[in-house]
Amino acid sequence: METKPIYILAIESSCDDTSAAVLCDKKRLSNVVATQKIHEEYGGVVPELASRAHQQNIVPVVHQALAQANIDKKQLSAIAFTRGPGLMGSLLVGTSFAKSLSLGLNIPLIEVNHMQAHILAHFIEEENCKTPSFPFLAMTISGGHTQIVLVKDYFKMEVLGTTLDDAVGEAFDKSAKILGLPYPGGPLIDKYAQFGNPAAFPFPKSKVGDLNFSFSGLKTSILYFIQKQVKENPNFIAENRDDICASIQFTIVDVLMTKLKKALKQTGIKQIAIGGGVAANSGIRKALEDAEKKYGWVTYIPKFEYCTDNAAMIGIVGYLKYKEELFSEQSVTAKARYVL
Ligand code: KG4
Ligand code: ZN
Question: What pTM, to 2 d.p., does this model score?
Answer without folding.
Answer: 0.95
